[in-house]
Specification:
Layout (H helix, E strand, L loop, with lengths): L25 E2 L16 E3 L2 E8 L20 E5 L12 E3 L18 E10 L7 E6 L2 E2 L1 E6 L2 E7 L5 E4 L7 E10 L12 E3 L2 E2 L3 E6 L4 E11 L2 E10 L6 E6 L5 E7 L2 E7 L12 E7 L2 E7 L4 E4 L2 E4 L2 E2 L2 E5 L13 H13 L4 E3 L7 H10 L2 E5 L17 H7 L11 H15 L5 E5 L8 H13 L4 E3 L20 E4 L3 H8 L7 E6 L10 H10 L3 E6 L7 E5 L5 E4 L27 H9 L3 E7 L4 E6 L10 E9 L2 E8 L12 E5 L10 E9 L11 E9 L7 H16 L4 E4 L3 E6 L2 E6 L4 E7 L2 E2 L3 E6 L11 H7 L6 E11 L3 E11 L7 E10 L4 E9 L8 E9 L4 E8 L12 E8 L16 E11 L2 E16 L3 H6 L11 E10 L21 E12 L1
Helix pairs in contact: 1-2, 4-5
Length: 1017
Amino acid sequence: MIVPHYYEDLDVLHEGTCLDRAYYIPASRRMDDLVEEREKSDRFQLLNGKWKFRYFESIYDLKESFYREDYGAEDFEVVQVPGVWQNYGYDRYQYTNIRYPFAADPPYVPQENPCGAYIRRFQYQKDANAPRAFLEFEGVDSCFYVWLNGRYLGYSQVSHALSEFGVTDALCEGENVLAVLVLKWCDGSYLEDQDKFRMSGIFRDVYLLKRPEQGIFDYFINTEPKGETAILRIRASYLDGAVPITATLLDAEDEQISCVTFEHEAEWELQNPMLWNSESPYLYTLILETQDEVITERVGIREIHIEGNVVYINGRPVKFRGVNRHDCNPVTGPVISVAQMKQDLELIKQNNFNAIRTSHYPNQPMFYQLCDQYGFFVIDEADNESHGPWNLYYREDTDEERAARWNEMISDNPLFNEATLDRTRKLVERDKNRPSVIVWSMGNEGGYGCTFERALEWTKAYDPSRLTHYESAYYRGRARKYDYSKIDLYSRMYPSFEQVLEYVEGMADKPYLMCEYCHSMGNGAGDYEDYFELIEQYDCICGGFVWEWCDHAIYKGKSENGKPMYWYGGDHGEYPHDGNFCMDGLVYPDRRPHSGLKEVKNVQRPLRVLSYDRSTAVLVLKNELNFTDVKGYLDVVYELSCDGRRVSSGCIAADELPSIAPYETGELILPLNIPEDGRVFLKFSYRLKKANALCPMGHDLGFDELWLANTDSRNQDVCAFEQAEQVRNAAAAALSVEENERQLLIFGEGFCYTYNKLQGVFEQMRLGEKALFDRPMELNIWRAPIDNDMYIKAEWQKAMYDRAFSRSYSTEYTLKAKELVIHGKLAILAVTVQRIMNIDVIWKVSASGKVSVHMDVERNPEFPELPRFGLRLFLPANMHALHYFGLGPEESYVDKRRAASHGIYRAEICDLHEDYLRPQENGSHDDCDYVVLEGEGLKLRVYGSSSFSFNASNYTQEELTEKKHNYELEPCGSTVLCLDKKQNGIGSNSCGPRPKEKYRFVDSGFSFDLSMVPEEG
């Protein structure tokens, strides 16, 4: 082996590296654009680009001293750095959530440890005013050894942290040779068991900094608002000896506020300071100048503290509307550009989030500077997760046993004390000057013990100005009584509503935070609104962070049908893996929004209508912002509709709104003429009054919709349908019926319907020579399981819901001239199991061709909740156009409907499909009064005496159940129309609690009514 065996030595975490420090980019003069374009600094030399690279399947296969200046590297290829070698075509992608992808035997890792050798030749010109040089690696997975011009510089680990080497003596004027050896695994991998694809290599920027002989090495800025003043403090340390620092503070208009010269510490007072917060991210500029160097820093003045069990920022109680975000891109993997960061931040801001948790490692330093600029609260998380010990072999295989012993291997093992503290220190030191960072998180999912006690103690002593967080402190080991006193927040992930209430209504001694909740996997989540209401109800709940921002997947080009192919766990033949559990985001890998993002956006709208009293015309509003009065902030556009048609509309300009302070209510008078007949809704849409850095003027901030009671709240279009049918029926010829052992053949003027007496449904409806059905009608209780059906799916399949069919036990009919009434006794059955439900059904066929049904259903209580209940029709594929009145245009379910509003919507069938990467139930529309499908001379009108839901698709639920990727889906050749009483709730049970009982289809008995009118033309 050509390198020291540090990668399995817990006593050697780094060798030859500099002390940790705050991130900054120096220059020879003031430069204000070093966040997005830091390469413009004349003291910054980027080494990204084309490197030579060779992959070895084992460290033992690397025999040659490739780091020598004269090494030929003939067997090396040219690759782009930053990058990961899985994207170069080596090794394999692997996605795991909890399990270690190697034997759990710390500090040892696989002996045949894959590695990559890198060589970069570059030119260097010394600067007389900045003769010292430092080599910076911002991210290397998992550990690496470095040489410059054949000289060994050192070793480092912690994949998502800055590693800095002093290279002044090793650099040459002219050409230099940088060599790096990266190993796939090291002892640090036991602390990097995050829920993500495992990829290896130099995945963040590499660069040189040119520095003066004497100058600033590190500095720490603190701010302390005090009423009408604020104290700004700075503490500095130096490369060697102290030198004078001139600190100039400028406001956002570039006007000088103060200028002081100091050496180690300085403090000055600001009058009437502008405070930084997520809604008004006001930044001052601080210029730190020494004789031969200028550092341009941005400062936000803010404070955070806890009173009792409530979090305050700048003296105001706050709620975090947060999201968890991984660094991930379907093409570049963990290699994230500033442009990609900005794209994410823009979407996150536009969807009403105010906070981000950097799950589960520090992001690049520019990310936090952008959060300063754009206004996001950040929970900054250390690169520390040892989830793997949860899945060790335990003789007593229970969650209680795993929780109690989780900490034994790593987090309560003193051998990992220094490694844990090192990761915490790297986090805090690098990001300590960022105003957006309001909480230090020790890491994620690793149990709790002596390692974290020590890290927390250091953190609170070093930076008492911020809060601390570590969710896994919830899991108590058995070895001793542990110290939790340095943890400021009581944090849980995916708690049930009952668990939240147990804490907040009990001994709630700390603020409650849901660091992960509403697992937004696939068609989900369905409980955003319920959690929002819970957060609103209790002051001690400071909010939560939705899991998670983006689906993780690997882009594999386009399939034959033109769809992009995204692969997830197991698609690369790896073991172990956790399937598509990595695809649990609010946006697809290419950042197209899921319907769940639209849902949570509207849940988190900045203004809410609490009530409207039609008798007094009083509208009650609540401000949901943390810091901003809504007056002047947004315009309110309102529309009164009846049966989906506009009755009246208007705009309440921002300056016409009442002044409403954060979390307070206000009233205004809004006179309206409300129709007495029809389904009447009053919709309020909120538009941003003034553009900000990420949202344009007029940006949609969300909406409220109120149903207004009136004399006759029936949809008048449905009433008109019925009246028209009565007229047609009166004019139609009489019906006739022919019966055989299996069927009733029903003949009317221009139509013939076939009723199946064995199944209790219609197997065909013909209008002249045209068949309405491609396949017989079905009673339907199955849905293609969504990701959040992960656990109930097994019960459903055990209950044989996916193999269910109907059976009729008796058929009686009564024929009058203009109406046929069929009475049947039915059941839903499935192979190997007992009767699932009994159904008493009455079908009525009118002479006009209308078919109506009434079902009284009794579900066998032995069986689990139903996925759905209704009818499934297979219509000709050319019936591809539809319109409906109900919730739209977004998909909607009983618990997932806040992104949709009532109206008349028109669509093509193909446009109703939400193309989740793993196929599943999608595209339902709830609370519908009617739906009409038509095409090629056929029309089907469906309506009910009460609302129903429908789903129209080119794919069967069997196809959506069977296929593993969306690009594998094959249309069935029909338009599949599901007409449902309702569906089971969506929830977030893939990682969260089951849906609330009110959303679960647990009804023991219920009725179902529909009318269907087939038509020609």
